[in-house]
Amino acid sequence: MSDRYTSFANTTAGRAMVKRLGxxxxxxxxxxxxxxxxxxxxxxxxxxxRLAEPVRKLLREGGASTEGEGPYxxxxxxxxxxxxxxxxxxxxxxxHPVARSLRPCGRVVVLGTPPEECGNPREATAQRALEGFVxxxxxxFGRGTTAQLVYVAPGAEDAVESTLRFLLSPKSAYVSGQVxxxxxxxxxAPANWTRPLxxxxxxxxxAARGIGEAIAxxxxxxxxxxxxxxxxxxGQPLSAVANDIKGSALQLDLTSTDAPQRLVEYFSERNGRxxxxxxxxxxxxxxxxxxxxxxxxxVLMDINLSSQERVNDAxxxxxxxxxxxxxxxxxxxxxxxxxxxxxNYAASKAGVIGLVQFNAPVLASKGVxxxxxxxxxxxxxxxAAMPMVVREGGxxxxxxxxxGQPVDVAETIAWFASPGSAGLTGNVVRVCxxxxxxx
Amino acid sequence: MSDRYTSFANTTAGRAMVKRLGxxxxxxxxxxxxxxxxxxxxxxxxxxxRLAEPVRKLLREGGASTEGEGPYxxxxxxxxxxxxxxxxxxxxxxxHPVARSLRPCGRVVVLGTPPEECGNPREATAQRALEGFVxxxxxxFGRGTTAQLVYVAPGAEDAVESTLRFLLSPKSAYVSGQVxxxxxxxxxAPANWTRPLxxxxxxxxxAARGIGEAIAxxxxxxxxxxxxxxxxxxGQPLSAVANDIKGSALQLDLTSTDAPQRLVEYFSERNGRxxxxxxxxxxxxxxxxxxxxxxxxxVLMDINLSSQERVNDAxxxxxxxxxxxxxxxxxxxxxxxxxxxxxNYAASKAGVIGLVQFNAPVLASKGVxxxxxxxxxxxxxxxAAMPMVVREGGxxxxxxxxxGQPVDVAETIAWFASPGSAGLTGNVVRVCxxxxxxx
Lengths: 439, 439
Description:
2 copies of one chain form a homodimer.
Chain A: H1 4-9, H2 12-21, E1 43-46, H3 52-61, E2 72-78, H4 89-98, E3 102-112, H5 121-140, E4 146-152, H6 161-168, E5 178-182, E6 201-205, H7 210-221, E7 225-230, H8 235-244, E8 248-251, H9 259-270, E9 276-279, H10 294-317, E10 326-330, H11 333-337, H12 343-364, E11 369-375, H13 381-384, H14 388-396, H15 406-417, E12 428-431
Parallel strand pairs in A: 1-2, 2-3, 3-4, 4-5, 6-7, 6-9, 7-8, 9-10, 10-11, 11-12
Helix pairs in contact in A: 7-15, 9-10, 10-12
Family (chains A, B): Belongs to the short-chain dehydrogenases/reductases (SDR) family.
Protein name (chains A, B): 3-oxoacyl-ACP reductase
GO molecular function, one term (chains A, B): oxidoreductase activity, acting on the CH-OH group of donors, NAD or NADP as acceptor
């Protein structure tokens, strides 16, 4: 979808005008092209903790340099050595001199210890403080820079590579100001980081268009065989997507009583399993609560939330999700912050967050992870149809001053889906360019 | 501090003009006056769970009616009986018919079970979904209505009164869209709910002006003897506040090495204890990280975060905080969402959140609670000095379309300080009129 303002603001004349008028300055975000390396250039690694050395090693093996002069593609700071609030000064010491040495669309990653796993309250306090620092850096550095905080559990030092690769690459162009938790896990690194999903079977619901289509395409690019599901009414665009990515099309209404059973039969017969389940299908039925009909509540809640529960439970009961399985659900910023006219939608999407958080420990015993993405303003047909003022407000009110693309959501899901991401479960990551709107 | 737009928008001519131009419509918020009852009028209670009946009883004993025709002063829904996502329909059934029957500055409270204490993932998912619903109601109902979600742990049914009184009263005028957790605790209800702090000794740091002054005044109104602390340079306004509320003035620089020891000596000699500690003292030293001097980092972190740690530890080590003690820290929305030019401030205020969350379990064994408030845009001398555009942006970008008053922060702190609030610990409550800005 087009964003003519961002295009204009990146012409020579546009840049000058935008500066003179004090308008938002959206930069053209660098995005990943198939075959590119995840990491390149120089990523400066600082800090003194249990992660700096292993991270330097994996970055070098991934093809990046970890020292030398700027401009840098990334700045990674290991804050796990910070034991109390006075030690936070190390953040200043590392970032202050290099704050202006990042390339456009640069990357900042701070690595910490999950506060809840710290030995004492003073250490936990300092580790929790990192979040305020990182979110401020993400708002301040500008020019397409992203900044994230990754809490790495003690013992999870080997589980961090897929996350660093994602967060340092152009794949995370529209992910910023996020907090990610990596736990200890037996990680099987992909044989080939450019085709990490080789040999995997994936299901994507709502795959006929928009974000779902982008998810299907990115998972296929990464090597998965993708079963594209959508309602029968979307049969034509669905087939087109499935054919184009050499996947399969499956027409199914998820609200029908026999849908879970039909999915079980489908995967039992065709593949014997499904490795990756992406719950993307969802609808909006906006109305203020006073004007909302019963039906708008019921049908939305069923598609956006209850059907996900039914499908997960059926696939698990039929033993179709093997160890190493991945469930990724699509939540929404509305589910985090609420929204006028969306009591139904926000409840369903907050429920998705609960689904992910409280199924994570249950699924861990089966070797299955479950995570969620929460898109902000993403350029789709849906947002293109918004009134101009609402659309422009949503587009510009984030640290990138622009909307995201469906591919940004898809890349985030592919990161969760990777065999390398066994240490990630129960996470909710916003794909919102660090939207100012929040809870 | 004045907000001339809100005053104007509440005149007859102003109301008409604001409507015609589609401008924000801030209503004049009802605030508490000393001696008023916390709860009055009719508070409709619905839902079927373990809380509806006890809540009806306590509301009636508190002087409210719990059934009858609207307009209502409050709507309370007990959602603890909702066992899965299909059961969420009960929210719609209760709120849809009465969504327009609230008085201006009405109150909505939804009561749930903490998802982490639910018996199974489906129940946890449904309980987590409540948050999206409540935040949407808070954005949608308008006219000064607030809406909150209170998670009441099983067994904490008797610990909820102070929280309901606060959230249903005009004391919470600028608190909306918040999630509060009440745990099981031995609660001693105050003998007199209009003077709940009778006989208590309180310390308020940074009490010479602004929010700190308001805190001192409200705690004194509620019956506490307040020790007002500020730096020697603020000696004169400090004495004026202390005299006015019949408290004590204590000039002390919290960054001095002997400050914790001097506090210990002060309370040992004068009172033998301190029941309520309010960490309000804090500074800003805004600069982008690239331009920030070392000193701006160090002095800010010391005052805003490290000094709180030192004071708590010294008072606890000297056994001056008795069982029933209360610590309340002032965080900030910047600590939650980050802010451009505030890497230092946001880190310190995020650290305060960590301090509260990770000291709560440690202090619980001593019968002491610790909570935080996170103010949004509050009208003070500091905000009055902001450039107009920044000020108006901050003021209007919340569900109340206006800034809060220092007293709104103070009332929230007084709620945490109450003997009735033994079940509240580790909470972070924003006083921000449900600011749109978030994380």
